[in-house]
Design goal:
Elements: E1 2-6, E2 11-16, E3 19-24, E4 27-32, E5 38-42, E6 45-50, E7 55-60, E8 63-68, E9 71-76
Parallel strand pairs: 1-9
Antiparallel strand pairs: 1-2, 3-4, 3-6, 5-8, 6-7, 8-9
Length: 82
């Protein structure tokens, strides 16, 4: 499936992934290929995704995710600074 992570400042990631884990308001949830359509609010936390090579993590401050037809779009409020 295709994942796109965007903040108001920049595009963080764009590419094919096999799984994405989100910090949802009610807890963590995961999206796999052919997932049912959904829109959800995200809270501050780790957004994890796996491509062919490795697992990567992005720390977000919140946002919204839309899943539709194997395309996942994350509109993150911002990235958490360490």
């Amino acid at each position: 499936m295709f994942l796109e992570i965007v903040t108001p400042a920049k595009k963080v990631f764009e590419g094919e992934v096999s799984v994405v884990t989100f910090p949802g308001i009610d807890g963590l949830f995961q999206v796999l290929n052919n997932h049912a359509p959904l829109v959800s609010t995200l809270k501050e936390g780790e957004l994890k995704y796996r491509d062919n090579k490795e697992e990567s993590t992005v720390e977000i401050t919140g946002g919204v995710v839309e899943v539709l037809n194997n395309k996942v779009i994350v509109l993150a409020d911002g990235l958490k600074s360490n």
